[in-house]
Amino acid sequence: MESTPEFTRKAWLKQNTLLRSLSDSVLEAIATVLQIETLPANHPLALKDTPPPALYILYSGQIESDRTHPAGVTKATELLPGTVLYLKELLLDEPAPETTITLDECVLWTISRAEFLALSQQHPELSQTISRQLADELEQVSSQLAYERDRQTALRPYLVSRVKRGIVGSSRYAIRIRQDIKKAASDRRSVLVFGEPGLEKDNAVGLIHFGSRDRKEPLIKVNCNTLQPNGAELFGRAPGKPGLLDWIGRGTLLLNNLEDIPADLEERLVQLLDNGSYTPIGRDGEPTPKTRHCEARIMMTSERILSGLERCKLIGHTIKIPPLRVRKTDVANMLDYYLSLTSRARALPLPKVTPEALRRLQGYDFPGNSTELQT
Known about the structure:
With 375 residues, this protein is an alpha/beta fold. It contains 14 helices and 15 strands. It is elongated, with a radius of gyration of 29 Å. The model is unreliable at 68-74 (pLDDT under 50).
């Protein structure tokens, strides 16, 4: 890249970077000392926890930074032209918080560490700008913490933190259920898990959620027989209290026992599944509230497939959990599993099950399915 006049650099900095808040005299001083570097792809600018060697301003190309969060998750962020790198770290003498590399050939405007520190001594406005930025960041973090606190309070009564168990058994039915769960965990389409009572259908939903890429997002379970006829718990009120769909973000909403949902909510559910939108509950005599968009994934359990949903073809994955009476070969595995849990919990030796006792259990229909076997 050919050298550019200082006035052109100054105008570009003012138009495209966060340095626009600086005075013209400081921008001009920065533009005067900028050096132009062209770097190839996969070239590191700075490594995590090491002092940045320079101030970098990305003029063209793409850069990626990898930052490890306290939870141990590494998040890659793609940086675009106009990004200013290591301004705060140079002024506060801090190490680089992430490793930064070029994704393709990049043109960067740079100021060496020593030259930038000398510049900041001549122009205290640079340090004052960082102080204002830090105050803004602190205010933003405080706001985010307050929001997260309110969110946790709203979701806590419905939160599912873990699954009870995997799918126990080796029959063709158990194998098919595992395959269906794995398939449903690979995308974000809606899910219906149906079958008789006592089949722990909500546990299958948990396996889907915690086996997906959204496992760190919340999973909440709402029993449909507890919903108000207008669904205010889900949709919220406008103006007024937010609903669960407002709080959950990209998490998963489990509507448990869908056959118990109030009839007035079926149309709203169809709308939610169809286009991901919902309308908060408004006040009588006032204009209808604006429609909102929902990012949550919707999963449902039911004892049957609801004709309205089936007719609209709005369910992405339908998983049938067969009753225990057709899974005779899984009874032995389930029995061993439940006995081992009970033995460990009570610090007792694992009891022996005689062949005759097992045959009698396999000959029983278990109308309460796995829940009855467990008890």
